[in-house]
Amino acid sequence: MRILYVGNSFTSNNNLPGLVKGLAAARGIAVEHKVISVGGASLRQHLNAGKALDQIATGGFDTVVLQEQSTLPIKSPDRFRESARDFGAAISDAGLRTVLYLTWARRNAPETQKALTDAYAAAAAELSATLVPVGPVWERFLATHDEPILHESDNSHPTMAGSYLGACVFLIALLEADPVGIETPVKGLPPETAALIQEAAWTICTDLTTP
């Protein structure tokens, strides 16, 4: 799978795409990727800049992962839907697969997860896109685990554990593989913590998709 990631620090911090690639490799799935990331950027800013659209048209990818600015779907869901729609049209025209990376709420505003989830789910339904529900999995994990910490001290960005949990969700939702038992080492993450996250990601994702 050749993936183009379009987003900001929620994608690039801790090299989330690299974590996904490592997990995929452990399951015999070859993944190549490119990241277009600008700190704090919205999808509309990426559209206006043009670089992502050029890569979609000519970059040889088969999958495009879109990540909106972290609070914009809460504050302006219509603007998010419009940007997702415009990206979706370009991705569809190029014959590629659209994936939406549903992010998490700020630590000090957990009640906003529902608005994030609703906005991304509606956009995914409209675009027939694959939804990677990282935020809802974080929400379930935080409800039952005090450790490891998922948010950095700014209450927004992910720790390595938070990014690794997200990568496990990508493996499950996008690549349809089980992370449990993968022993690929991750710098800054003890093996027992990685194992706990793998188990939790699989259990929560299975629960979320069970009618």
Summarize this, please?
With 211 residues, the protein is an alpha/beta fold. The chain is 52% helix and 11% strand.
Tell me what the structure shows:
The model has no long low-confidence stretch (mean pLDDT about 95). By secondary structure, the protein is an alpha/beta fold. The protein is globular and about 45 Å long. Helix 8 packs across helix 9 (about 160-175). It contains ten helices and five strands; from the N terminus they run E-H-H-E-H-H-E-H-H-E-H-E-H-H-H. It has helices spanning about 10, 15-25, 45-50, 50-60, 70-75, 75-95, 115-125, 135-145, 160-175, 190-210; strands at about 1-5, 30-35, 65, 95-100, 130. The longest helix is centred in the C-terminal third of the chain and has 19 residues, at about 190-210.
Write the layout of secondary structure elements.
Layout (H helix, E strand, L loop, with lengths): L1 E6 L1 H4 L3 H11 L5 E6 L5 H7 L1 H8 L4 E4 L5 H4 L1 H17 L3 E5 L11 H15 L2 E3 L1 H11 L15 H14 L17 H19 L2
Parallel strand pairs: 1-2, 1-3, 3-4, 4-5
Helix pairs in contact: 2-9, 6-7, 8-9, 9-10
Organism: Kribbella hippodromi
InterPro entries: SGNH_hydro_sf
Protein name: SGNH/GDSL hydrolase family protein
Which keywords apply here?
SGNH_hydro_sf; 211 residues; alpha/beta; five-stranded parallel sheet; SGNH/GDSL hydrolase family protein; single chain
